[in-house]
């Protein structure tokens, strides 16, 4: 075994590798970019070296290995994990690359070559065609719908479905653009698009002495944007015969390229009935994000096995000795907004709670309070993995762990993951890669609203009695109304709105300090007064009235609901809010003017503002006023219209790109492009105005435009 290993990665995976190194008594060396100088992985390692040019800088990583006496480099996943150039340079420098031989990475690195190689070894592959052959011809031969894929692809990027020959040119154009930008290789392939498929993959492990074993499967069918968010082992729907055949195919695929180390052979299984064919789609020549579920059901440490194999040791067990025990499920926590098409978010972690020690729950996380989540790196923040003797209990434990997770300051998918686990089909194991898309509306509603609402009178009811007057000096506004159209994901529950107003009101009282005229206690020359807070979240605004001091006891009313007695006890990050006799706990953080509240894995960001600041429908995604905003921070890739152009609802206006992900922003309604605020190549902020669409002026002659030229 090595005595020093450099970990050429960051975040949760760097920490995870360092954990095993420590257990094995191996010295660990971290590397870090300037943005990560104080990151947890840097603190966890025995030594750390700065990489001035970041994690992809091959020569800087090698120099760091040289300076610290590292005999081996573990690349984690992403960055240099599948770089044959890096693997070759390691060999030249006499440093062991903890991964397969460069030739195997090369053979599997490109989907076209990988399919050809394993097909020649007798492994079934999805019917399709590949460049340099003509893709249109191939698509016509295999029949529509087809899936267009970048050959060098990964992470679901650039994959597009073409449902007909008419859709194919645009799919090819967009996929090619993404492929060139994201992978530096524009080569594409087309495959038969398999309807309602399942993604099942097999973990393989090979040593340098000719032994290859598999460690069973992982079911990874719960995906958004063709990317996994929940994975489990074993698959709830695989009969013994299919399992055996897939295991053998996976081992055959690994052997066909002389594989050494840990790898994953991915299959797509058509339909959910036993006996359906499992087609090879690709092999990932590295540790996978979802490897922990395999570790929990096999009791093996895959990083330890990778290191042993890299050090030349033979596999310590044979295929017959692999035992699978119980069930494990992993959920990936992403900085993304499910209600905005799962686009990456960002921000600074203001408050953080992760599930602490609990039986059979593992948390692989790279987060800490203060972590800045930007657009430089993958938006995955952490992974939560639960094990239990059976699937139902594993899902329950995972949900409990997610409920105990709070991230404030960055919008995450935690509540969405909980909604997904509660879905009846997910609970029953009826999974497919299309499930999330099919149920999106219901899942978003479940993620945002619902939940245990303690005070029903806060969300509806008769108009409140009592006088309403202009309130606090800074934020008070006249009595407001709930305004704005319904945004995806819905408005926060009344209880949350009330809690946010109490926190703001309390904050104002504290800041006012001793000046009795500034204290918003509701008393103005003997007259009890209400302060009205207008709180905006997700494009919806609600009015919440508060009278009295929250810390001592006050009254609160949401919208036109009845007033209830309330009290706020602030307690570090966790505040206790008592309303109408029921006390609940919220995590709370204030960031500038924004109040972040979290509970049960959900989080809400509420912005107090003056009346009239944001009109109906002007919020993100709102279409009412024709203002089209950027759904994410990124770069404008293409502008597809010109000022004055007539557009129809749904017509692509602008393509925004971030993290090599393209998002097409479309016209909210028929009309004329009245303003176009962007140019290709320019960066845009989240919510930045891209364009304004105004209704087309009525034709004076009254002739419908459609008749023109007919
Ligand atoms: P990437 O390397 O970008 O992750 P993959 O080839 O592994 O791309 O595919 C990612 C996901 O896309 C799969 O898990 C599956 O959900 C879907 N997919 C891939 N190929 C097909 C296909 N032929 N038909 C239907 N869905 C597919």
UniProtKB/TrEMBL annotation:
Renumbered residue ranges of the record's region Disordered: 454-490
Keywords on record: ATP-binding, Biotin, Ligase, Nucleotide-binding
Residue span(s) of domain ATP-grasp: 115-311
Residue span, Lipoyl-binding domain: 620-694
Domain spans labelled Biotin carboxylation: 1-441
Keyword presence, ATP-binding: yes
PANTHER family in the cross-refs: CARBOXYLASE:PYRUVATE/ACETYL-COA/PROPIONYL-COA CARBOXYLASE, METHYLCROTONOYL-COA CARBOXYLASE SUBUNIT ALPHA, MITOCHONDRIAL-RELATED
Record protein name field: biotin carboxylase
Source organism per UniProt: Sphaerisporangium rhizosphaerae
């Amino acid at each position: 075994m090595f005595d020093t290993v450099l970990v050429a990665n960051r975040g949760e995976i760097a920490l995870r590798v360092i954990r095993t190194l420590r257990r094995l008594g191996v010295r660990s060396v971290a590397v870090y970019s300037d943005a990560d100088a104080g990151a947890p992985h840097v603190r966890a390692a025995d030594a750390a070296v700065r990489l001035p040019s970041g994690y992809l800088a091959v020569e800087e990583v090698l120099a760091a290995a040289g300076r610290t006496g590292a005999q081996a480099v573990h690349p984690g996943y992403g960055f240099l994990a599948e770089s044959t150039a890096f693997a070759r340079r390691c060999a030249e420098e006499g440093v062991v690359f903890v991964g397969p031989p460069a030739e195997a990475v090369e053979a599997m690195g490109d989907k076209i070559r990988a399919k050809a190689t394993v097909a020649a070894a007798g492994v079934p592959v999805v019917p399709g065609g590949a460049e340099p052959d003509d893709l249109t011809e191939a698509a016509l031969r295999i029949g529509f719908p087809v899936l267009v894929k970048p050959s060098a692809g990964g992470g679901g990027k650039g994959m597009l479905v073409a449902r007909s020959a008419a859709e194919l040119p645009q799919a090819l154009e967009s996929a090619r653009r993404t492929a060139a930008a994201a992978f530096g290789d524009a080569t594409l392939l087309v495959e038969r698009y398999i309807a309602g498929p399942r993604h099942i993959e097999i973990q393989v492990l090979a040593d340098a002495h000719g032994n290859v074993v598999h460690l069973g499967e992982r079911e990874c069918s719960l995906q958004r944007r063709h990317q996994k968010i929940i994975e489990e082992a074993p698959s709830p729907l695989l009969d013994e015969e299919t399992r055996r055949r897939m295991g053998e195919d996976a081992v055959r695929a690994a052997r066909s390229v002389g594989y050494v180390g840990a790898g994953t052979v991915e299959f797509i299984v058509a339909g959910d009935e036993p006996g359906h064919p499992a087609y090879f789609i690709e092999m990932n020549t590295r540790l996978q994000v979802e490897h922990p579920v395999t570790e929990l059901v096999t009791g093996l440490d895959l990083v330890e096995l990778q290191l042993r194999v890299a050090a030349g040791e033979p596999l310590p067990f044979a295929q017959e000795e692999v035992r699978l025990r119980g069930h494990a499920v992993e959920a990936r926590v992403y900085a993304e907004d499910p209600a905005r098409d799962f686009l990456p978010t960002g921000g600074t972690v203001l408050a953080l709670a992760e599930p602490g020690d609990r039986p059979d729950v593992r948390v692989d996380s790279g987060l800490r309070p203060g972590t800045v989540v930007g657009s430089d790196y993958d938006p995955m923040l952490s992974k939560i993995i639960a094990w239990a003797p059976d699937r139902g209990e594993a899902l329950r434990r995972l949900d409990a762990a997610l409920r105990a997770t709070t991230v404030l300051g960055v919008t995450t998918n935690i509540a969405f993951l909980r909604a997904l686990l509660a879905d009846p089909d997910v609970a029953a194991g009826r999974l497919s890669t299309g499930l999330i898309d099919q149920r999106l509306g219901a899942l978003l509603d479940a993620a945002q609203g619902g939940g245990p609402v303690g005070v029903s009178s806060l969300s509806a009811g008769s108009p409140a009695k009592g006088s309403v007057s202009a309130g606090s000096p800074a934020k008070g506004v006249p009595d407001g109304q709930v305004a704005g159209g319904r945004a995806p994901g819905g408005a926060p529950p009344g209880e949350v709105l009330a809690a946010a107003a109490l926190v703001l009101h309390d904050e104002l009282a504290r800041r006012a300090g001793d000046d009795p005229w500034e204290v918003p206690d509701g008393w103005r020359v003997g007259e009890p007064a209400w302060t009205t807070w207008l709180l905006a979240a997700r494009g919806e605004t609600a009015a919440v009235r508060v009278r009295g001091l929250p810390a001592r006891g006050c009254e609160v009313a949401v919208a036109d609901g009845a007033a209830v007695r309330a009290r706020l006890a602030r307690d570090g990050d966790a505040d206790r809010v008592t309303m109408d006799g029921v006390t609940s706990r919220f995590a709370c953080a204030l960031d500038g003017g924004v109040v972040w509240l979290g509970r049960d894995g959900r989080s809400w960001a509420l912005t107090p503002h003056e009346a009239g600041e944001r009109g109906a429908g002007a919020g993100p995604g709102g279409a009412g006023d024709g203002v089209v905003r950027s759904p994410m921070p990124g770069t404008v890739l293409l502008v597809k219209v010109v000022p004055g152009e007539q557009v129809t609802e749904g017509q692509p206006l602008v393509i925004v790109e971030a993290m090599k992900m393209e998002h097409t922003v479309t016209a909210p309604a028929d009309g004329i492009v009245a303003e176009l605020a962007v140019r290709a190549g320019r960066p845009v902020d989240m919510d930045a105005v891209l364009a304004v669409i105004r209704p087309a002026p009525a034709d004076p002659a009254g002739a419908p435009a459609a008749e023109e030229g007919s």
